[in-house]
Amino acid sequence: MPKALNVGMIGYGFMGRAHSNAYRKVNQFFKLEYQPVLKACAARKEDKIKAFAENWGYESYETDWRKLVERDDIDLIDIGSPNNTHKEIVLAAAEAGKMILCEKPLAMNVAEAEEMVAAVERAGVPNMVWFNYRRVPAITLAKQLVDEGRIGKPFHYRALYLQDWTIAADVPQGGQALWRLDASVAGSGVTGDLLAHSIDTAEWLNGPIRRVCARTETFVKERVHAETGKVEPVNIDDACMFLAEFANGSLGTFESTRYARGRKNFNTFELNGDRGSLYFDLEDPQYLQYFKYADPKTGQKTEAHLTGWQKIHVTNFEHPYMDHWWVPGCTIGYEHTFINALADFLKGLETGTPAQPDFRSGLRTQKVCDAVLQSAREGRWVEIE
């Protein structure tokens, strides 16, 4: 019989739903030693959290997250609440000896993230950041191809993350639905919300970023605040573009915006090396495009009449995670990335080899995000530790 792992979920929004679905489904598709139990959830608004608990099958709910953390029947705290709450919850949960899973970005800034990392490492509690795109099978396959030497010496990395949902000037900032537009709650705009994903993926595939040079823009300077009803300055970045130098000598370009009309969740990357290239598009996630120029072992060039981009349909049992899902040719979706991530976390508990990215890895991404924002403020290149 699997060991029960009692989950305490904080937050009931988009991420609360995605995470709860993962807890409910993971043991149906992965053979694991641990089985999550939806023990309790927490949020300030009782009517909302009660309805959430009933819908997802949580045994109970709290209106104060502190009570959830203090409960003896909770093993794991999952933080799906706004960014400005992450640090306080993590410090309390670590002090209580709970396992902790946290949504990205890890913190509001590097100083907070360092305090959080110190807390979980001092307490010795298992931890992970929900950078779920690492668990898209095609992206995991990209990592496999890089590790197999199929790209060779890297030259260029390009990433785009484009959306369009904040273009209208009458969209308010703040409140339950639009806290991501309020700098006091979100910390930053597209840099922390979207580029954090791009940065985590880039460093996972191509190694650490050494320095950055960035430009940000806020197109709508003032918005009505949903809670105060007053017109207030907008202090988050609506758009960000930055250049990057990687420690391996390759160059990177990153762009993110919420003002790309027609783009809903357009998240792409391309990696070019001397032996091959990779390209991925999250809006077509079952495919990874691969260009093979030379054999990774012999260095022999591909015959000229056979060169060209290969579009790999990542659904075979040989592909990452796919032996847990359907038959070849049948795709999986966004929600499955969270299930895959949770399965890796639970497997890490079994084996003693912690799943990545943990909080220290999340701190690394936070350092790059903070350097990007500093560069944009100061108009210069910024080095990263």
Largest sheet geometry? 9 strands, mixed
What's the helix count?
10
Question: What's the quaternary structure here?
Answer: single chain
Q: Taking all residues together, what is the mean pLDDT?
A: 97
Number of strands: 17
User: What is the name of the CATH architecture of the largest domain?
Assistant: 2-Layer Sandwich
In CATH terms, what is the fold-level topology of the largest domain? Dihydrodipicolinate Reductase, domain 2
Spatial strand arrangement across the major sheet: 16-15-14-13-7-12-11-8-17
CATH class term of the largest domain: Alpha Beta
SSE succession: EHEHEHEHEHEHEHHEEEEEEEEEHHE
- The portion of residues assigned to helices is 25-40%
Low-confidence stretches: none
Number of domains: 2
Query: What does the radius of gyration come to?
Result: 21 Å
Judging from the principal axes of the Cα atoms, what is the shape? Answer: globular
Name the CATH superfamily assignment of the largest domain.
Answer: Dihydrodipicolinate Reductase, domain 2
Strand content: 25-35%
Helix/strand-derived category reads alpha/beta
Q: Could you characterize what this model shows?
A:
The protein has 385 residues and is of the alpha/beta class. It folds into 2 domains: 3-132, Rossmann fold (3-Layer(aba) Sandwich), CATH 3.40.50; 137-378, Dihydrodipicolinate Reductase, domain 2. The protein is built from 10 helices and 17 strands. Strands 16-15-14-13-7-12-11-8-17 form a 9-stranded mixed beta sheet.
